[in-house]
Amino acid sequence: MGKQEMYDKLRDAIVNQDINGAGPLVQEALDAGFTPFEIINDGLSVGMKIIGDKFEAAEVYLPQIMMSAKAMKAAMEILDPILAEDETSESVGTCIKFVQEGDIHDIGHRLVATMLGANGFTVIDMGVDVPNDKVIEEVAAHKGEKLMLSGSALMTTSMLGQKDVMRLLEEEGLRDSVKVMFGGAPVTDSWIKEIGADATAENAAEAANVALELMKK
User: Fold this and answer.
1) Neighbouring C-alpha atoms within 13 Å toward the C-beta of 143
2) pLDDT recorded at residue 87
3) Are residues 120 and 193 in the same domain?
4) How far is Cα 40 from Cα 107, in angstroms, rounded to an integer?
5) Among 190, 189, 183, which residue's Cα sits nearest to residue 162?
6) Which residues of the chain have a pLDDT value below 50?
7) Where is the B12-binding domain positioned along the sequence (predicted)?
8) Which CATH number characterizes residue 171's domain?
9) Which domain holds residue 160?
10) pLDDT in the model for residue 25
11) Rounded to an integer, what distance in angstroms lies between the CA atom of residue 179 and that of residue 148?
């Protein structure tokens, strides 16, 4: 089987919500010599993006998204232990990862958390629908560490909460102690600039690269 053919099969397992087939397919790809990064970046996350775009366009609904997420979870259950083994011993920094209050879309969020972990970050996953004050508390608790805050929002309404996060960081005197990165379908570079955050990224793989660059600054 050609590389692209395998990527397409991995992609389709997510798009078609193949909960039972996703895991065995990942194992098949690993046995064929594909790396976890290739499997995630070129296969699984492509499928997640397609499903995310379809959801935004109201072509699929929450039940389908949840089923795709379960297929993704089944795939990641095989990849997570391998990624954990590959982690460098020295952490490049601590990343507090959360999904904005009012939003329960955790697929992209989980993907980014996985990629950050695989790239040497210590990831604190706060989960979904996280109130801003809880986010600020978590940042304050880790002040002094090499710290990054990464928030996701898939809806325009929840995205607006990112502005409040930035305001609260300023008010609490925490802004200078943390790099801030936001992602999600509605998030743009101009929005990041407007609210005074540091960066955004198109996808999970890029998010890991951007995060690593931010930590060097």
Assistant:
1) 12
2) 55
3) yes
4) 13
5) 183
6) none
7) 92-217
8) 3.40.50.280
9) 93-216
10) 97
11) 5
